[in-house]
Amino acid sequence: QVQLVESGGGLVNPGGSLRLSCAASGFTFSDYYMSWIRQAPGKGLEWVSYISTSGTTIYYADSVKGRFTISRDNAKDSLYLQMNSLRAEDTAMYYCARGRTVLRGGNFVDYWGQGTLVTVSS
Amino acid sequence: DIQMTQSPSSLSASVGDRVTITCRASQNINSYLNWYQQKPGKAPKVLIYAASSLHSGVPSRFSGSGSGTDFTLTISRLQPEDFATYYCQQSYSTLYSFGQGTKLEIK
User: Average pLDDT for residues A10-14, to the nearest whole number?
Assistant: First the structure.
């Protein structure tokens, strides 16, 4: 069965860095685009970043552009998010998400991890 | 950026009711619209993709419609397990965006 397991979250000072990881299993990782999606406490969902199957196409939300870097290692079935210059407003649960593409229907997330909590505070 | 606006933000209903949630995009997104359900402390789950396609395993009481800028999610007969928060999401532009959510509560 499909599993996405995030790790790497924790408490970090403003201006600090964290690297999130997502270990994928139960499917051919290299066949799917992947994303990071976050949710601040008590708030809605925000798409953070997207990476294509080969890693050649990458998008970021304006709120994290220039500070976060998404990457993947298809040999290790793993997705990463390097987060630098962290701010209090980056505090959120970060979800690893698998994407599917639908002909003439766009993309959607069909599997989510359980999330890893990032808290930015001094 | 494409803004997604859901209405209402919250809704009280009873088991057995028919409920409709709407989602409006700030520009045409064709049928590139998905609906997710999220329960407290859990990751979201997809219900509907491409505006009207029911995801595998989702009960048939859930349905979606619309295209262009206006979309609806309908739950035909509410069940106790349907009380949750619902989000729409567009994938028309590369900056995917979600609606603010609709919290469905028990009346």
Answer: 98
